[in-house]
Design a protein that fits this description.
- 39% of the residues lie in helices and 16% in strands.
- A hairpin with a 2-residue loop joins strand 11 and strand 12.
- It is globular, with a radius of gyration of 25 Å.
- The two termini are 30 Å apart.
Length: 692
């Protein structure tokens, strides 16, 4: 893990806090393990972990005015200096408009501003400490700092309503550690904290002016090209040199066995539109798109394209074939990674502790098998679906704007998929009902569903669309939670509904789309930590601020059309000069993912039964062990249960076990008690007693 940490102290606390650390419980000096001090008194900042030299940049205007940028940022030092001067007056948004994925920290006197991103892939956390406020880009270091216990209310909401921001609020799995929402910045003034939004929110009362589709697609293309160029322009990283041959192994096999990526830059090439777009853009940009000459594959300037071929479950043969056709580009060097039963979901449940739990923990080994054959800098298409596709609730947004004619094509596509003439009336009725439902009422309806254990939803594509035409819906794991846990989340939602008298201030479709993006970005962050390959960096340009902004500007009428994502990306590539795409490019394929999950669940059923023999989730009062074991047995035999819910439960149980099994802390000089969850999980007799 790589993170930054610092704090802002009150004027009276300056004497106890300095550049060497801070005074702990027994007078000892605290500072992060493996840290590099960027600036000191009175509000110090550290970079912790294996940051590359070019990933941490600090630009000074004078002793009291400076800016630090962590990650991949396309701005030069002079642009950073101009941004610092502009930030002196309190402006924030311009700090988030440079190409790349990064975290910016600005210090102007005693005022510190830490900018989160729009998607949530680079979150910021904070907690009160030593009379001031400590902040970091990871929650666990702050939990260690204050000795935080688990927040059981947050864990219950994470299972019962993971897509509902009102349920999760700004909490984290650690009690007392808070999260800065996406699109917001943390502003600290002599220890006092303030959360400020830097992105305008679409009004519910006034329709947005119609956007030109061609200009919007051009903006997406320009943002993606700049995002890719920012990575290609960064200094190339060469991992530790291969120490020598191993009998029976080639260079690629040695690197994979030793956990070493190929030097240079590469990309996923799954055959889908998102990864294919990034690979072709990166290979087509002028300059040096691929590996360093004389290292790795010997491919010189060719970009390494990695395709995963699942031999255990069939269904993606057409995508692999399209990937091979795309890889015929002479600027690409194609590598196919095959995986059998050992790479199925649930096949390998051992792994490192991540900052937070996420469903990617059950598939981390599957992703690691692919990434081990990748490059030191590796492009992935994660986030494209969330920023480009239309959430079903956007149909209600079209009705709010009186654009009913744009519903014809998406509703007709659903009718063809279902084969029923009643589909248009059902979908239109649900969209109209959502358009007329206030945000507060949506939260109250969800609270009632949780309290009454109403989790049955229609099946199929039409059923999924109808279920999505709501302000909020239960998570797939909610049906297996205890009544006390569901009641706790229900009471929390009722309280949030009472506090939201003015509504969310957003359209339902836009609101649901932002929530889905935030959840995906948080899970991608978990995946990066769980499947991490030493010396490798994963890049997800679709989650960059400027790309997210450009995608949000796409007209809803364009976004809701069938095949919109593939159409937009095809036009992006055409604008970049790439036109020879294989037939069927962009065709959706989801069935094999569910088949792989079910196959992995069936093979790992015995291990999961052992895992849930005495689950920590039961000690926390969230589930009953016999209920989960029954669900695992039923899913392994093929019963139609929500597999995503079982993944959520398994991932949270794994994360709790890894958290309690850890030794040490993120800080030096701390006593043994200064660590997260110091007393473990105490069985709860009454979940409602903890409060929300």
């Amino acid at each position: 893990m790589r993170w930054l940490v610092g704090w802002s102290s009150t004027a009276t606390g300056v004497a106890q806090i300095g550049s060497a650390g801070a005074t702990g419980y027994d007078g000892e000096t605290l500072h992060p393990v493996g840290s590099h001090l960027l600036w000191g008194d009175p509000d110090p900042l550290w970079a912790v972990g294996d940051w590359r030299p070019d990933e941490v940049r600090v630009v000074h205007a004078d002793a009291q005015n400076r800016i630090a940028v962590f990650g991949t940022c396309g701005a030069g030092d002079e642009e950073l200096r101009r941004g610092l001067f502009t930030a002196r007056g309190g402006a924030v948004r311009h700090l988030t408009t440079w190409p790349g994925s990064y975290t910016a920290v600005v210090q102007v006197g005693r005022r510190i501003t830490v900018c989160g991103d729009l998607a949530g892939a680079r979150p910021v956390f904070h907690t009160p400490w030593a009379g001031g406020t400590a902040y970091a880009t990871a929650a666990l270091p702050l939990a260690d700092l204050i000795g935080a216990n688990l927040d059981f209310g947050h864990l219950a909401a994470l299972l019962a309503a993971p897509d509902v921001p009102a349920a999760l609020r700004d909490t984290t799995p650690y009690e007392g550690v808070r999260r800065v929402p996406p699109g917001h910045a943390l502003v600290l003034r002599a220890g006092a904290r303030e959360i400020t939004g830097y992105e305008p929110v679409a009004s519910l009362a006034v329709a947005a002016p119609p956007a030109d589709p061609d200009l919007a697609v051009d903006a997406v293309r320009d943002a993606l090209v700049e995002a890719v160029r920012a990575r290609l322009s960064a200094p190339r990283h060469v991992p530790d040199l291969d120490p020598g041959p191993v009998p029976g192994m080639g260079p690629a096999e040695r690197r994979a066995a030793r956990g070493m990526p190929v030097p240079g830059i590469g990309a996923d090439l799954s055959g889908g539109p998102a990864s294919g777009t990034l690979a072709l853009l990166a290979a087509g940009l002028p300059g040096r798109p691929g590996t360093l000459l004389g290292h790795g594959t010997g491919a010189g300037e060719r970009l390494l394209a990695v395709t995963f071929n699942d031999l255990a479950v069939r269904g993606r043969e057409s995508e692999v074939e399209r990937a091979g056709t795309l890889a015929a580009n002479p600027r690409l060097h194609h590598v196919v990674v095959t995986g059998g039963e050992e790479s199925l979901p649930y096949a390998d449940l051992d792994g490192p502790l991540t900052d937070e739990p996420g469903p990617s923990l059950v598939t981390a080994a599957r992703h690691r098998a692919r990434l081990a054959a990748g490059s030191a800098d590796h492009f992935t298409g994660h986030g494209a679906r969330q920023v480009l596709d239309a959430h079903p609730a956007r149909l209600a947004d079209l009705l709010l704007d009186r654009r009913r004619r744009h519903l014809v094509r998406p509703v007709a596509a659903l009718a063809r998929a279902d084969g029923s003439v009643m589909v248009p009336a059902r979908v239109y009725s649900a969209a109209r009902r959502l358009a007329r439902t206030p945000y507060r009422t949506g939260l109250e309806l969800l609270a009632e569903r949780l309290m009454r254990h109403r989790f049955d939803e229609p099946k199929g594509a039409v059923g999924a669309s109808l279920a999505g035409l709501t302000w909020a819906r239960p998570g797939p794991a909610a049906r297996w939670l205890t009544g006390e846990a569901l009641a706790e989340v229900s009471v929390l939602l009722q309280g949030e509904a009472d506090r939201s008298a003015l509504g969310s201030g957003q359209r339902p479709g836009d609101y649901r789309a932002r929530a889905a993006l935030a959840r995906h970005a948080a899970d991608l962050r978990v995946l990066e930590q769980a499947a991490e390959v030493r010396s490798q960096r994963l890049h997800a340009p679709f989650l960059d601020n400027q790309v997210v902004r450009a995608c949000r500007a796409l007209p809803e009428a364009l976004r809701v059309q069938p095949g919109a994502r593939a159409s937009v990306l095809r036009r992006v590539l055409e604008g970049a000069g790439v036109t020879d795409l294989p037939p069927g490019w962009g065709a959706p394929s989801h069935a094999s993912s569910a088949a792989a999950t079910r196959a992995g669940l069936r093979l790992a059923a015995d291990d999961l039964m052992d895992l849930f023999a005495t689950p920590l989730l039961a000690d926390a009062g969230l589930v009953e062990a016999r209920v989960i074991r029954k669900a695992v047995r039923a899913a392994a035999t093929g019963e139609p249960l929500p597999l995503d819910g079982l993944a959520d439960l398994t991932a949270l149980e794994l994360w709790l076990r890894r958290l309690l099994a850890r030794r040490g802390t993120c800080w030096t000089g701390t006593p043994a008690r200064a660590r997260a969850v110091p007393s473990g999980i105490q069985p709860r007799k009454n979940a409602l007693a903890s409060g929300a």
